Amino acid sequence: MTDITEQLTKLLGDNAGAPFLFVGSGFSRRYIGLPQWDELLASFCGEIREFGYYASQANNDLPSAASLMAKDFNEVWWNSENYAASRASNKAIVREYASALKVEIAAYLTRQSYTRVPDESLARELAAIPRLNVDGIITTNWDIFLEELFPDYKVFIGQEELLFSNPQSVAEIYKIHGCASQPNSLVLTQEDYDRFEAKNAYLAAKLITIFIEHPVIFMGYSLGDKNIQSIISSIVSCLSQDKLDKFGRNLIFLQRCSQNEPGGFQPSMMAIGETNLNITVIKTNDFTEVFDAIETTKRKIPSRILRYCKEQMYDLVRDTESHGKLAVVDIDQIENKDDIEFVVGVGVAGLHEKITQKGYQGISLDEVFDDILAPSSKFNSDDLLSGVYPSLLRRPNKYIPVYRYLRQSGIDSITALKSSKHGSIEGLIRRSQSGRLAGYQGQYDRICVGKSTQEIIDLVTPQKASILLQFQNDDQIDMDALHTFLIANREKFNSENSTYSSYFRKLACLFDRLKFGFPLTE
C-alpha cells in the first residue's frame, strides 16, 4: 500500500460518510480523450469565423466567446445543407439563438465512443472506477461517460432538476451544467452562466449537507477553476466559523504531477474571498493510489439500495395514506425503487431471528440461472413452477427466466399458459420482455450496427456487452456466442461481484426467451 493510499484511507475512515466525487472536464479528457472546451468550440467554426476571432472579441472569456459564436452559428444552422438532417430532427427544440450550437455539441458528445482507453495504466484506473464506494458524483461535464461507469446511479440533469427534486445523496449523479442527452440544458453561453450564478445560492443550500458530511474528491479541476471557486464561495457564505474547518478538511483535490514534481499527500490552503480553507491536495500520476483508498471503505449494503430505501422512507413519512404491501426479499433482488415496499421498525430484532430460524423454502434464483444455462435441466419443471415460482413471483426482481420450464411442462403458447394452473406466470413473462436501456441506443448505433454478436463481445468489456447485446434484433443474435458469453461471465450475475449484475440477468432471460420462448399473442 502506497503512502498516498494509507493516508487517504485514514482520512476517509475518520469520516462517517462515504466520499462524493466532483468531476470536471479533465476526467473525460484523461480517460476518453475528449477535447478541451475551447477546442470543442473551435471544431464547430468551419462555416463561420475562426474561433480565435470570437475569443479575442470576448477577451478570451470562453462563455462570452460561446455567446458570440452561437449567434453566427444559428444563422448557418438554419440555412446550410450540412445541417439539413439535424434541422429536420431538432428544429422543435431550437428555441433560442444558442440552441442550434447546443444541439450539435450534444450530438458530437453522444457520438463519441466511450470504450477507448489511451494506455494500459489508464485502463487499470478505468477498471477500478465502477467499483469505487462513492455515495454520489457532482459534475459540470456534459458527456455521458459517468452514467456508463455508474449505470445504477440516478441522474439529475441541470440546476433546476436538482433544486426541485428530492435527491437522497446516495447513488446519484448531479449534472449541474446539463447533459448532452438534453441539449438545451447545457450551460454554454454567458447568458447561461448568468442564470446559473443567479441560482448558485440555492444550489449551495442543496449541496451544503454533502460537503459537510462527506469527503469530496475533486477530479479533473484545478484549484483556480472558476466553477469550483464560485460553488465553494456560495457554500462558505452559508457556514458559521465552527463549520469552516470541517468543511475544508472534507475538500480533497486530485491532481497530476508536473514534470519532475514529487507526488504526495499535501496539506494546502485555498483562498475563498477573505476566507482561507485548509484543504488536501493529492499529487500523483497513478490515480489507482487514490482509487484503492476509496475502495477500502466498503458498504454492507450497495449504495443504489440505500437510495431506494431512503426514497421510500421519505414517501412513508410524507404520505400518511397506506399503500402497498410488506414483503421479505433478498436485498440483491432489488432493482428499482418502484419494486420496493417495506416497513422500517425499531426494536423488532426478534422478527429477523424468527425468519432466520424458519429458513427459506425451495430453490434459489441463482440455481435457476445456473439451470437455464445448463445443457439439460436438473429440475422437475412442474414441481419447480408449483413449488418455487410462486415465491419468486413475489420478488421485485423483474428478470426471472421461466420459458424452459413452461416448455418442459407442455406449455408452448400464451393460450395454453392462461388455461393452465401456472397462469399467474404470465405477468412475470410480460414484465421481463425487454432489458434495453434507452440511453444506450445511440452508442449501439454508433459502434455495433452491422456487427455480429461475437464481434460486439470482442469490441467492448463484458459489462458493456451485457447492455449492448440486448439491442440486437432476435434474428441477429448468435445463440452459441451468447450462451458461451453468459457461461464465461456467470459470476457477474451476483451483485456482490458486479455492479452490472442486473444486466447479465436480463441477458440470461433474453437467452431463455430466444431458446425456449413462444409468442405472447393468442
UniProtKB/TrEMBL annotation:
Pfam families, sorted: SIR2_2 (PF13289)
Protein name: SIR2-like domain-containing protein
Organism whose genome encodes this protein: Roseicitreum antarcticum
